[in-house]
């Protein structure tokens, strides 16, 4: 018979040595790698830079805005409403939105008139959600009208600004 299938470990002493080697050699390699990485040259700034970098990495994704519900409401301008609710799609033409300051995108829409455009904004049209995705408590219909005038004026529209609603008593 041939000895092709014999074990390489023939004595208990060889077994102990192999167990020791198979456990401690990888452990030593890991420790040496840790020392090598830890002793690498460090470049960088001061403690303030490290703090600023850490704060940037752990900052929250969203911020909460707390407002006094009894405080008087300030009207937003058309430009402010555009930046808050419309710019994310109309700046780059996402989902087929007519782009800001692009007369070619707006030429067919301007002919429909201000009321039709405002109705599309309030009800939503195509991929655009109703009110541009804004909450009615944050942006009212008059402010949406101001944003329609602002957006269309950038592309040659000449709609007059809507009149402000009467103040609630």
Overall shape: it is: elongated
Class of the domain at 78-153 in CATH?
Mainly Alpha
Supply the helix-strand structural class.
Answer: mainly alpha
Biggest sheet record:
none
Number of strands: 0
Helical amount: 40-55%
Helical region count?
6
Distance between the termini: 108 Å
At the fourth level of CATH, the homologous superfamily of the domain at 78-153 is Cytochrome c-like domain
- Proportion of residues in extended strands: under 5%
Q: Say what the CATH topology of the domain at 78-153 is.
A: Cytochrome Bc1 Complex, Chain D, domain 2
Order of helices and strands: HHHHHH
Radius of gyration: 34 Å
| CATH architect. name of the domain at 78-153 | Orthogonal Bundle
Low-confidence spans: pLDDT under 50, at least 5 residues?
Answer: none
Rounded mean pLDDT score: 82
């Amino acid at each position: 018979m041939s000895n092709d299938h014999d074990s390489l470990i023939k004595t208990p002493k060889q077994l102990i040595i192999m167990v020791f080697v198979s456990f401690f050699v990888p452990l030593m390699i890991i420790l040496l790698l840790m020392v090598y990485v830890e002793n690498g040259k460090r470049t960088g700034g001061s403690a303030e830079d490290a703090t600023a970098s850490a704060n940037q990495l752990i900052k929250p994704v969203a911020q909460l805005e707390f407002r006094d519900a009894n405080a008087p409401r300030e009207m937003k301008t058309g430009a402010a409403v555009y930046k808050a609710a419309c710019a994310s799609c109309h700046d780059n033409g996402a989902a087929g939105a007519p782009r800001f300051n692009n007369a070619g995108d707006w030429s067919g829409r301007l002919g429909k008139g201000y009321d039709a455009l405002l109705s599309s904004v309030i009800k939503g049209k195509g991929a655009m959600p109703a009110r541009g995705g804004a909450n009615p408590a944050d942006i009212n219909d008059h402010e949406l009208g101001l944003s329609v005038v602002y957006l269309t004026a950038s592309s040659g529209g000449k709609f007059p600004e809507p009149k402000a609603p009467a103040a609630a008593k």
